[in-house]
Amino acid sequence: MEELIQQFLDYLSVERGLAPNTIQSYGRDLRCFASFLKKRNIESIEGVSHKDITEFMWARKKDGIAANSIARALVAIRVFYKFLVREQKAKQDPTSILDSPKLWKRIPDTLSVDEVERLITRPDSRNILGIRDRAILELLYATGIRVSEIVGLSLNDLNLGAGFLKCTGKGQKERIVPVGKKAQMAIDLYISKVRPQLVRPKVSSNGLFLTRLGKKMTRQMLWKIVKRYAKAANIKKSITPHTLRHSFATHLLERGADLRVVQELLGHADIATTQIYTHVDKERLKAIHSKYHPRP
């Protein structure tokens, strides 16, 4: 099955033009599925039934895998089988009668406005890395861009005078995102005062955010930055850089932003992906109603 999986991944890269991170995720999901089948002595792609796929999903759930990851694995298997049938490498598609695990989909964790303020103001502005980290946190919340997008930014992607940046999202799609004044100020301070001190003569990098060694910031480093300041700010929730993206979208919708506008800002190809944030808002409204209504 490994050969078929590799052919499929090559197809996603060459013909569909999917982002490398997405292709890697699909590859991991499909190889995990193949390993599951092998343990059940299913060697042929034709020997897989819809029941096998369902049991794979439940096994992942029992292993504590996040609902979003399980849903993504099902998407990978669906697209894989469509590819196999179209290429006449499989006669039937066992995923055609499966429903998506909607009940497993978890509402994203978000921060309150107060928690966001505590997080963003936590870096120490008296040292250069604190100024850099403040700029990173300000930009994550101001724009809602993904971790992969912020670490991919270069100096040329910024137009602070106009208050916009250009980022490259999933499928190598570019979009223009506005940047708020507070984030503009934090980034301008970082670029003018700090970034020149981080540049190293023997290290070539046009990346916007640099490490203390002058190298381009990685996703893992950025993740650690957010976790460190969340702990310092005494935020008890388990958060990641993506939590700021969720909070960005949720806070916009709470204040009356149009769902289509939020979809464009986030770079979602399908508005159904953006609609998860309307569920967050409904949960908030229910909580307020339950707390303050005299007959909840």
Please give a structural write-up.
This protein has 296 residues and is mostly helical. It has two domains: 2-104, Tyrosine recombinase, N-terminal domain (DNA polymerase, domain 1, Orthogonal Bundle); 113-290, Orthogonal Bundle (hpI Integrase, Chain A), CATH 1.10.443. The chain is built from 13 helices and three strands; from the N terminus they run αααααααβββαααααα. A three-stranded antiparallel beta sheet has the order 1-2-3, with no helix packed on it. Helix 6 packs antiparallel against helix 8 (181-198), helix 6 (128-143) crosses helix 10 and helix 10 packs across helix 13. The chain is globular. The model has no long low-confidence stretch (mean pLDDT 86).
Q: Give unreliable regions as ranges.
A: none
CATH 4th-level superfamily of the largest domain: Intergrase catalytic core
CATH overall fold name of the largest domain: hpI Integrase, Chain A
Which term fits the overall shape?
globular
Query: Could you say how many structural domains there are in total?
Result: 2
Topology order in helix (H) and strand (E) letters: HHHHHHHEEEHHHHHH
Q: What is the CA-based Rg, rounded?
A: 22 Å
Structural classification: mainly alpha
Q: How far do the termini sit from each other?
A: 55 Å
Overall mean pLDDT score?
A: 86
Strand order of the largest sheet: 1-2-3
Q: Supply the CATH architecture of the largest domain.
A: Orthogonal Bundle
Annotation field: number of helices: 13
| Helix content bin | 55-70%
Question: What keywords describe this structure?
Answer:
296 residues; mainly alpha; DNA polymerase, domain 1; hpI Integrase, Chain A; 2 domains; globular
